[in-house]
Amino acid sequence: MMGAGKTTVGRLLARRLKRSFYDTDEEIERRCGVRIPVIFDIEGEAGFRARETQVIEAFCSLHNAVLATGGGAVLAGENRRILAGCGIVIYLHARPPQLWQRVRHDRNRPLLATPDPQKKLEELYAERDPLYREVADLVIDTGKQSVQTLVKDLLTRLEGQCSLSA
Fold it and tell me: May I ask the CATH class of domain 6-149?
């Protein structure tokens, strides 16, 4: 979900693992030369999601990388299939009240540009949580611990799943 810490945790995890880090939202913005809200304005959510699938497919062909996807990437069955076959998928879980505290001042969230953004966030969570769980190899509750503690816990849990040598 937006605000769960995918980019922050992903960057630190990649640094600790000595791997490259990629963020699909950042890559889409780089390729288009505009921010995501502009893409939504021009192409709508469907246009953005098509671009997102292309980027996920491209990045999943890389090895020894950490990839942070946008919160809605799991909506497309094709994306879930690609991600499930691409490596270990981690769901950074946070409840809507926590997410709201993290994103309430962020104006780069086109899906929250509604009269009741907090309600919209709860609806997105209800729709997406089962999809995240469907594709996830690990579910990590982001809670209130520091990012450093979260990554340390994540590394410990990953050690039990695979070889983490770079």
Answer: alpha beta
For helices 24-32 and 36-60, angle between their N-to-C axes, nearest 10 degrees: 120
Q: Find the helix packing angle between 117-135 and 77-84, rounded to 10°.
A: 40
pTM flag (> 0.85):
yes
pLDDT digits (tens, 9 = 90+) for 78-114: 999 999 999 999 999 999 999 999 999 888 888 888 9
φ, ψ (nearest 5 deg) of residue 44? 75, 175
Domain definitions of the chain by residue range: 6-149
Q: By the 8 A CB rule, do 79 and 21 touch?
A: no
Q: What is the pLDDT of residues 39-53, one digit of tens each?
A: 999 999 999 999 999
| Count of beta carbons in the 10 Å neighbourhood of residue 43 | 14
CB–CB of 142/99 below 8 Å? Answer: no
Q: Given this model, what pLDDT does residue 165 score?
A: 47
